[in-house]
Amino acid sequence: MKMIVCLLASICFAVSAWGQQRNWNDSWNEILTAARKEGKVVVAASPHATVRRMLPAAFKKKFGITLEYIGARTSQTAGKLRAERRARMYTLDVIFGGATTMANILYAEKMLEPFRSMLLLPEVLDPSMWKRGKLWFIDPQEKYILRLFNVVSANLYINTDHVNPKEIRSANDLLNPKWKGKISVLDPRSGSGASTAAILYHHFGEEYVKKFYIDQKPAMTRSRRQVADWLARGTYPLSPNVGRGDVLRFKEEGFPVKIVYGFPDLPARITAGNGMVALLNNAPHPNAAQVFLNWVASKEGLEVLSRGYLYPTTRNDVDESFLPPEQLPRPDKKYFDSMGWEWVTTARIKYGAMVKEILRSRR
Fold first, then answer.
1. CB atoms < 10 A from the CB of 245, how many?
2. Residue 59 and residue 67: Cα distance in Å, rounded?
3. Across-strand partners of 69?
4. 9, 29, 93, 245 - which has most CB atoms within 10 Å?
5. Are 90 and 101 in contact (CB under 8 A)?
6. Of 104, 74, 78, 131, nearest to 342 (Cα)?
7. 3-state class of 45 per DSSP?
8. For the residues of 77-96, what is the DSSP string, one character each?
9. pLDDT in tens, 326-360
10. By C-alpha distance, which of 199, 193, 185, 148 is closest to 347?
């Protein structure tokens, strides 16, 4: 009798699974057919040369659908979207970007469409395929902004021809008068520079920020390339704000650059870079956008994105052997998440205003 019950249960499970698979396949094929009739999907992402080349080619090869890639900073794209929507124009389908613009502009101004229910691929919906045990939507409703990357970000970059790394064992060591005029930073009033300044205020308070940004007289710029050149040449051999791509290039070319991931008094940060993805409402190619979102969250699509940006992903089945192990978050370590919802929507804004007030005294 027990064997009969087990057999019946197995048959019922198999029939149910077959039915679900058939329903999924039917829905997917319908969407794919409609997407191919639309002919293209328009995706806004960073002006990253490698990703701009790899992503459209891989998507076209997989589905025969053109991916029109709009490369620009997320803040620039947000400005474009505002202007278009005032004119009731809708040209973009999907957008990649950082958490700050996604949360404080696109989400806050209701430009996004929830898309969690549009994810159909079994490998995307399977919780065991994700490092957190589920899809990592960062918004409170968990359906608007999906996080695809999670990488350990450096706290400091050092040109070892000019600075002995053993002399800087903590964040407080950067306040040593010896380093006055030897530090460069991205402008702490905007962008990534503002994020760094807000984190320093959060961890150390007003006096530290005054000493670091005023007393140490760091060189300020809004150009990541400028900061990178200063570091490589030794003009300003210390910086918390060098782009990863530049540092990797420097190391390949033999420049003496050391990367510091966290200090005893300042934990390493984790970030997603431009690895947040969202669906814009009133998308002109909704079916192609749905196909793209399913694909980019799959193993195949996310591996293309990972190798383009050189970032580890939030999936656990993507090959990350080509990445430096220091950039892979470890489950036994605590990190500061610089793209957490509460941080980017509230705390960072508060600390950013305090930093701007402090910098008014800089001459």
1. 15
2. 7
3. 43
4. 93
5. no
6. 104
7. strand
8. HHHHHHHHHHTT-----EEE
9. 999 998 899 999 999 999 999 999 999 999 999 98
10. 199
